[in-house]
């Protein structure tokens, strides 16, 4: 698809406003309008020169080629099906939908329409994780042993319709499978409800991947400390990615000669060199949307497929199932 691409957006919340900013900055993209049913939001949009309409059908009538869906998760299915039916290429903010059954409907709708459908798992575009994956692909850690993620911070006022598993842990589910190139085999999770809401606000998970890597996810909305950390440990050391600062650090295994005869046959791991890599740090959202636009044009692009988004939702559901049942569950997709 050549020429100017006409873009729209559904949902002018916190993330939606960032999508508008980036879409307006991309070459070859004309931002047409946004959808938000809230009257106060439409008035504010008009004050800043942004056209805001009330419905997806009204947006489609303006003639758009692509659209970003950044509305509450529970609304994704209805909106996505309408956009697929209209033949509009669509990026849906993660999670792709509130359930795997709903996500499957979205996938099938875009398969029928033949237009691009993808999911906004923005962590994949963080420079630190992209560098980590590249270095893992090159075998720099050797055999992989473990992935450990910490994702915590204060409760976000923007969330009203989901718990910490779908909203936050879905990031870790997707990025773990992506950086290791392996799917989940089993999951054991525990949750807690500490803030008085119906949805869980804390989850602790131990899982195993198909390649034998052991995984731990610690996720909550209860901490004044904001953390977004992924550590991958292997036979040669470990990588730690901080996606708040987009820093990637390598901790190399060291070795010390052992003089004590009784332990001379045991070679333990000791601290070696530490390297914090100097890497380019483009804005992840700009990278994500640039790839989406390239995919719409039929060019080579790295996007998160609806199939991958569906798998992430299914694993998140099994995480909740494990917590409810108090047992380890096998991942069957």
Automatic annotation (TrEMBL):
Domain Gfo/Idh/MocA-like oxidoreductase N-terminal: 6-121
Domain of life: Bacteria
Location of the GFO/IDH/MocA-like oxidoreductase domain: 130-239
Pfam families listed in its UniProt record: GFO_IDH_MocA, GFO_IDH_MocA_C3
InterPro entries: Gfo/Idh/MocA-like_OxRdtase_N, Gfo/Idh/MocA_Oxidoreductases, GFO_IDH_MocA-like_dom, NAD(P)-bd_dom_sf
Gene Ontology MF terms: nucleotide binding
Protein name per UniProt: Putative dehydrogenase
């Amino acid at each position: 698809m050549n020429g100017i691409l006409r873009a729209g957006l559904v949902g002018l919340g916190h993330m939606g406003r960032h999508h508008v900013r980036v879409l307006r900055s991309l070459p070859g993209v004309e931002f047409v309008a946004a959808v938000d049913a809230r009257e106060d939001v439409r008035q504010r949009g008009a004050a800043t020169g942004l056209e805001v309409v009330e419905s997806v059908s009204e947006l489609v009538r303006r003639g758009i080629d692509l659209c970003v869906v950044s509305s509450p998760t529970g609304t994704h299915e209805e909106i996505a099906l309408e956009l697929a039916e209209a033949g509009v290429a669509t990026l849906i903010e993660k999670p792709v939908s509130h359930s795997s059954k709903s996500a499957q409907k979205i996938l099938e709708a875009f398969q029928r329409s033949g237009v691009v459908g993808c999911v906004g798992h923005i962590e994949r575009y963080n420079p630190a994780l992209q560098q980590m994956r590249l270095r893992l692909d090159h075998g720099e850690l050797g055999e992989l042993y473990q992935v450990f993620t910490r994702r915590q911070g204060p409760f976000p006022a923007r969330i009203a319709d989901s718990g910490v598993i779908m909203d936050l842990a879905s990031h870790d589910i997707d990025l773990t499978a992506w950086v290791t190139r392996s799917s989940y085999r089993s999951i054991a999770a525990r949750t807690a409800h500490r803030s008085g809401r119906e949805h869980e606000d804390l989850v602790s998970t131990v899982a195993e991947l198909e390649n034998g890597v052991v995984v731990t996810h610690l996720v909550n909305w209860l901490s004044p400390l904001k953390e977004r950390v992924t550590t991958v440990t292997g036979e040669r050391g470990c990588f730690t990615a901080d996606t708040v600062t987009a820093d990637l650090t390598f901790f190399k295994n060291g070795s010390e000669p052992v003089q004590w005869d009784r332990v001379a046959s045991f070679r333990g791991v000791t601290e070696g060199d530490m390297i914090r890599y100097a890497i380019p740090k483009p804005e992840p959202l700009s990278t994500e949307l640039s790839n989406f636009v390239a995919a719409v044009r039929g060019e080579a692009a790295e996007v998160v497929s609806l199939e991958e988004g569906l798998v992430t939702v299914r694993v998140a559901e099994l995480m909740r199932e494990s917590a409810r049942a108090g047992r380890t569950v096998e991942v069957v997709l």
